[in-house]
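hiii, so i know i said id send this last week but things got crazy w the move. better late than never?? heres the sequnce for the chain we talked about at the cafe, plus the structure i predicted for it. fair warning i was half asleep when i ran it
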Amino acid sequence: MTQASDQPQSRLAAKYIATFVVVLALVAAATFFVPRITDHFLHEHGGAILTDVAKSWSLTILNPLYWIFLLVIALLELRWAARAGEGMLSVGAAQDFVWLLLAPIFNLTIIFFYLQVLNQIYEGPLHSASLDVEAVVGVALTAVLAFLLADFFMWLSHFIRHKVPQFWRFHQVHHSQTKMSVLTDNRVHFIESMISASISYIPARLLGLSDEASTFLAFATVFFTGFTHANLRTNLGPIRWLTVTPQSHRVHHSVEPQHWDHNFGAVLSIWDRMFRTQFKGANDYPAIGIEDPTFPLEQSPAPTSVLRTYFLQIVHPFKMVFKDFQKS
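okay and structure toks below
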């Protein structure tokens, strides 16, 4: 199959646009119809719950600020690229657009209902226990404490997903990207999201942070983790001692063995420094990817190709876990 980099730029651009239009149309239809169909059957148990979830997704993905952010990062990637051939105009970014736009398929179904199970545990055996920190120290300080707690649990969850072989099979999907861009952070398998939720959901609820503050922190994290996945040649200078950078997170995605099992942080780098998992080199910009030759990597930004590859990438970890159990 012809590689995207060998094609004329005009044809490549046309394929990117076609992919975006087709996938966005499918997602818009799913976002409109799926919640209404499901809510029809769940009407006696909560009404239009999934419709609200769909609206929340739309407010994030269709937010003008997010698209301005993507445009700014894309321009920065053109000017200060970490490695040539990567960034927003790569075939990898086209594939990650699909991961971004098809998120509602699982967010509105499997992950939504799994969160309801976790919530039942929180409200049942734990009796909706809450530290109610906000009532003691106020919204601002609670938001800071919640951010620190959430960031630590993201670090811990990330560390565990690398160390448990079956979890790694699903996290491997995220690491399969070979063309880093601001969109790479969206390549996350729904099973991996469930693993993360299992580790962090109840502690976050115990803190007692308001929905408004939680939404703000979640949205801010989307921007920051997008930035750290960008194809940018920067380590942010002295700031790197406090936060994750595009350089340090690229090291985390590296194909080079000396970089493996380092830099697990999501926003702050303090946890890696505290637990001695921070890679000391601040000027390495390695190639990225995984060692699995059977993984279905994207080959073309054409709509049919990226959609087919998306579902192959969803299925692949299940096949690998099954093979692991057969060998054991």
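btw Residues 4-327 form one domain. thought thatd interest u
miss u guys!!
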